[in-house]
Amino acid sequence: IVVIGVILGLLGCAKGFSLNDPSPRIVGGSNSSPGQFPHVVSLRTLQRSHFCGGNLVTVSWVLTSAHCTLGRANDGVIVIAGSVLLSEAGEESEERQSQRLANHPYFNANTFLHDISLVHTVSAFAITWNIRPIAMANYTIPAGAKGVLTAWGHTSYPGGELNDNQQWLFVNTISNAECISRVPEIDRPFVHDTTICTARDTIGQGLCLGGLGGGVLIGNAIVGISSWHLGCAIGYPDNHVLVSAHIPWIHATI
């Protein structure tokens, strides 16, 4: 999976790509089926332009990346749930406007520390077969665990066309020590105790230019919010904010 979207800064091998491209991109993933990941939502501008993904954790709160919501007005986000397509929401999808955006108070846009935020909708979503909150992992994630990464995007890189259908991809967690050893020295300070890295054995599958608020799932719980990467699926690990490390803040906020 390669994901490209709006981020706040370039990291390492990501240099040379545009930060103003609003479209998320995934390479090497598979199409999600309706209802397969009922917690995944599309975050859009008031003009209905998709800019990030999100994860429904209650019927009225969405967990995403702080770099997705930074600088946006509290009522400036439209949340669309229940659709795997960007172009056609469908009759069984639902739409809500935000009433509050809560970035983590210690989010650092320079180091991506605590790159996590919450979006509160004006009213609750109805729980259906294709709209359902997901549990949040409150436990330690070991290295070597197999997870699933979800997002929208391109089917191949470079040169792939933007896929209208949400994508998913298997990923494997690695220890922070291994993650640090596999990234350039200049980028090692971006790996924090409150983050978790994932990796693929195959070149051409992974994040690209930002996390887009997508999530890493293990079992029936969300364990990470995609935050940053180096280059575009060229073999470096991808980095995600640990949900378990932020459970106290999440509970205090919602």
Account of the protein in words:
It is a single chain. By secondary structure, the protein is mostly beta strands. The chain folds into 2 domains: 40-133, Thrombin, subunit H (Beta Barrel); 134-244, Trypsin-like serine proteases (Thrombin, subunit H). It has helices at residues 66-69, 176-182, 247-253, and strands spanning 30-31, 40-44, 50-56, 61-64, 78-81, 94-103, 117-121, 135-136, 146-154, 162-174, 195-199, 215-218, 221-228, 238-242. The model is unreliable at 1-25 (pLDDT under 50).
Gist of the model:
With 254 residues, this protein is mainly beta. It is built from three helices and 14 strands. Strand 2 and strand 3 form a beta hairpin.
Highlighted features:
254 residues, mainly beta, Thrombin, subunit H, six-stranded antiparallel barrel, 14 strands, globular, disordered N terminus
Number of beta strands: 14
Q: What can be said about the biggest beta sheet?
A: 6 strands, antiparallel, barrel
| CATH class value of the largest domain | Mainly Beta
- Shape category: globular
Share of residues in helices? under 10%
Strand order of the largest sheet: 9-10-11-14-13-12
Order of helices and strands: EEEEHEEEEEEHEEEEH
Radius of gyration: 16 Å
The CATH architecture term of the largest domain is Beta Barrel
Mean residue pLDDT: 80
Proportion of beta-strand residues: 25-35%
What is the strand and helix layout of this fold?
Blueprint: E1 30-31, E2 40-44, E3 50-56, E4 61-64, H1 66-69, E5 78-81, E6 94-103, E7 117-121, E8 135-136, E9 146-154, E10 162-174, H2 176-182, E11 195-199, E12 215-218, E13 221-228, E14 238-242, H3 247-253
Parallel strand pairs: 8-13
Antiparallel strand pairs: 1-10, 2-3, 2-5, 3-4, 4-7, 5-6, 6-7, 9-10, 9-12, 10-11, 11-14, 12-13, 13-14
Family: Belongs to the peptidase S1 family. CLIP subfamily.
InterPro entries: Peptidase_S1, Peptidase_S1_PA, Peptidase_S1_PA_chymotrypsin, Peptidase_S1A, Trypsin_dom
Pfam family, one: Trypsin
